[in-house]
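Case 231 in the screening queue. Each case pairs one protein sequence with one candidate compound; here the compound is adenosine-5'-diphosphate. For every case the pipeline is the same: read the inputs, emit a complex structure as tokens, and attach any notable structural observations.

Predict complex for case 231.
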Amino acid sequence: MLTLEHVDAGYGRVQVLRGLSFGARAGEVTCVMGRNGAGKTTMLRAIMGQVAVTSGRILLDGAALEGLAPHRIPQLGIGYVPQGRRLFGPLTVAENLEIGLMTRGRGSRTRERVLELFPRLRERLDQAASTLSGGEQQMLAIGRALCLEPKLLLLDEPTEGLQPSMIALIRDTVRRLRGMGVAVVLVEQRIEAVLDLADRVAFVETGRVAETLPAADLSPAAQQFARYVGV
Ligand SMILES: Nc1ncnc2c1ncn2[C@@H]1O[C@H](COP(=O)(O)OP(=O)(O)O)[C@@H](O)[C@H]1O
Ligand SMILES: [Mg+2]
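Case 231 output:
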């Protein structure tokens, strides 16, 4: 599904990703872990065409993503929920969802499915996104990404700072998407969440994936958590 091969990328002259290789498969949750500043967000931004890839390849089902204009990438069926939720604040919930739907020409059937997943959004369709609670904003960010009917969904620390009930809802959603065959890439720092959800875990260290393991091979006491996450 998604393959990154020896990717170098960064911001201007600052190189962040250094020969990073990574993969994600349909119907699996691949968790990405690593210390602050390791390059997790930059990896997702490289996939989305938002940082300059100076070397290496990024392939979706064998087709190259690197070098495409950033607006082309969501059109291929890649949903992205950035760290810290970047919504169009003055727009309403309905308008935010509409942006997602338009990106890939989806209509009311898709919208209905997303609203069934997140009934709270339906109650707030005419409300400005900026007036939603943190959890509701995250729901909207995910809902908007799902309006693309993505085959690949990138989630960057989606439960950071949210209440337990909202965290549980987001985890349920991730499981459902996996069941529907979506390839999910989840940046997540909580070990229990990772062990609960992940099929595979990629550990990022200084701009590269140092190790990828099946989640079944990891326990809470695994040395990888201490080594790459520092807990
Ligand atoms: N817009 C930017 N311009 C320059 N450097 C950046 C920018 N965003 C992030 N960086 C740097 O890239 C490195 C990796 O950051 P990031 O990908 O956000 O890490 P992570 O998500 O793993 O915490 C850090 O050293 C960070 O300071
Ligand atoms: Mg980050």
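Case 231 observations:
- The pocket of adenosine-5'-diphosphate (ligand 1) is lined by residues 11, 14, 16, 34, 36-42 (CB under 6 Å).
- The CA atoms of residues 90 and 101 lie 18 Å apart.
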